[in-house]
Structures are given as structure tokens and as C-alpha cells.
TrEMBL record:
InterPro entries, A to Z: HTH_MarR-typ, MarR/SlyA-like, Tscrpt_reg_MarR-type_CS, WH-like_DNA-bd_sf, WH_DNA-bd_sf
The keyword Metal-binding is annotated on this UniProt entry: no
Domain HTH marR-type: 1-138
Name of the protein this chain belongs to: MarR family transcriptional regulator
Species name: Streptomyces roseirectus
Length: 138
């Protein structure tokens, strides 16, 4: 009986996590949609801005794969769309022809800076006040 209660509690917690994730992604998507971005688009721009704080800095696409919660092929398609929109540039790694570098363009850096407060506000709305929990406690 205790095993069933533990399993049920674990399943309930998992469903709560999934619900918070879905709610947060929808909130971010709503906030960024007027700017032509979705949550995953922003996540890539945000990671590139953090990894490449200076104009011209580059990041290997491979370094983004485990951080954006997309498959490698979905990430490649997303980067292709961002490149088509002029927000990122891709170049082949000279040392390893299989590797691909990606960097923010000036347009991408400006858009990221413009929508960053919108994304952070969406996070705050969605995750800032967890019932019965202080922010930062788990």
C-alpha cells in the first residue's frame, strides 16, 4: 500500500512539473510571438548571448544540443530559421569540418536585448509565485 502511495505521489509531482513547464512555455510564447519568436527560438538566442557576450564570438552548435531540449535535427532546423531571419550566422569549423559554429548577428543581439525583459517577465508570472513555496526553494 505504501509503495502505491509513493508511486502516486511521484506521478503527481511529475505531472505538476509537466504542467508548470507547459504553462511557462505558453506564457513565453505569448509574450514573444509579436516579435516573431517562440520560446525555443529565444532559448537559443539567450544561450548564444550568454556564451558569446561580445559581437563576433562563436559557439559550437554541439554545445547547444543538450541545453535547449530539442533533438539535434530540430535544433539544426531552428538555427536554419534563425539564420534565414538574419538573427544568427553559421560557419564551418576550420579545425573540424564536421563542426559548425553559430553566432549572433547584430540584428539577433538587438532582438535578444529587446525581448529579454519580456521573457523574464513571463518567467516571473509563471514561476515567480509557486503556491506554498518561496522562490528558490525546492
Amino acid at each position: 500500500m505504501a509503495a502505491n502511495a509513493t508511486a502516486t505521489a511521484l506521478e503527481d509531482r511529475w505531472r505538476d512539473i509537466l504542467a508548470a513547464h507547459a504553462r511557462t512555455l505558453c506564457e513565453i510564447d505569448r509574450a514573444l510571438h509579436p516579435h516573431g519568436l517562440g520560446a525555443s527560438d529565444f532559448e537559443v538566442l539567450d544561450l548564444l548571448a550568454a556564451e558569446n557576450p561580445q559581437a563576433g564570438d562563436q559557439c559550437r552548435v554541439q554545445n547547444l544540443v543538450g541545453r535547449v531540449h530539442l533533438s539535434q535535427s530540430a535544433l539544426s532546423r531552428l538555427i536554419g530559421r534563425l539564420e534565414k531571419d538574419g538573427l544568427v550566422e553559421r560557419t564551418v569549423c576550420a579545425e573540424d569540418r564536421r563542426g559548425v559554429w553559430v553566432s549572433l548577428t547584430g540584428k539577433g543581439r538587438a532582438l535578444h536585448a529587446r525581448v529579454l525583459p519580456l521573457q523574464r517577465a513571463a518567467l516571473e508570472r509563471s514561476l515567480g509565485q509557486v503556491p506554498g513555496q518561496a522562490l528558490g526553494q525546492g
